Amino acid sequence: MVQLTSHSASVSVEGAGAADFTESPGEGETASRGRHGEADFPRHLVHRSDAEDVFPTGWTPQTDTQFSVSARWPHAHRFFAPVSGRYQDPLLIAETMRQTTMLLGHAAFDVPVGDQFVMWELAYVCEPDRLLLGRAPWDITVDVSCSRIRRRGRSIGSMHVELLLHRLGTVLARGGGRISCTSAKVYERLRGDRRDVIGAPIPLLPAVAPAEVGRTDVRDVVLAPGLQRNVWQLRLDTAHPTLFARPNDHVPGILLLEAARQAAVAVTPGHDFLPASVKTDFLRYVELDRPCWIEARPVPAGDRSMTGVHVSAIQDGEPVFTCTLGSPSGPHGTAGNQRSRPDDRQNDQS
Length: 350
Hints:
mainly beta; 31% strand; 11% helix; disordered C terminus; Thiol Ester Dehydrase, Chain A
């Protein structure tokens, strides 16, 4: 069992360097305050243009630093697809946390649209049995507490967030992280000529067999074969509608999380790995036009009921990303953790 009362999901990290967990919003879009309904939810506040990729549906302030965010998870998302038709994809937790944090940054803390959010660390822990699909809609509430807020004029420079996701009175997951915000001008200066890579062709490497990494469609595979056992090269498809929803000058954080999950699936016997817990450090921007190597190794999970895997991303000989993932040990009904796109699946959800 994954203990949802664990304090491990309360995240704090200090240091120099990070990896951006967002894509830049569109030009000319403005943020607004107040409660938003699903019908008119402003997608630019979560840096998404396709409604299918937007999970928050509204927000309500409780205090100046505490908020309630409503969200909806689809039964059949093109990328965050159900695992074996039985479980919601646990990485929906991470993506919902990411979007919730950006939403509140813009709408509640006046971060200008056009500024960059940087996620330094992200963690969550969940109970897989609470992710089992059923007939009820997946309407979720996210309770958010913001702390250690460092102001930058009317906006914020950084803050910590703790999040509690629940549904129908049952806790699904706890998580947390630390973000910082960089103005558009500072980001432009920071990245310099790296911005020139936006729109440049990035070679699409051959993919490992989808079944080895818990996928059924090669379009969703983010690992290419490496020269050593349990080492792969990061595979980037800049035309992927979810992982590269907008042009970017570096590898998006959600793609790195998916690479960690796929590597964990690959090194687990039977490819039976469901990421019920994740703790991630984003150390540096991961560049699109230089090889990035993904290394995975099993590690003790600190709990006999869990299997642990540690994943590192290495670029130019330096670690740029690390992630430790935990999955319930032994068969837990995921049938190899296979996930298929909605158009490839039988209609087994209602």
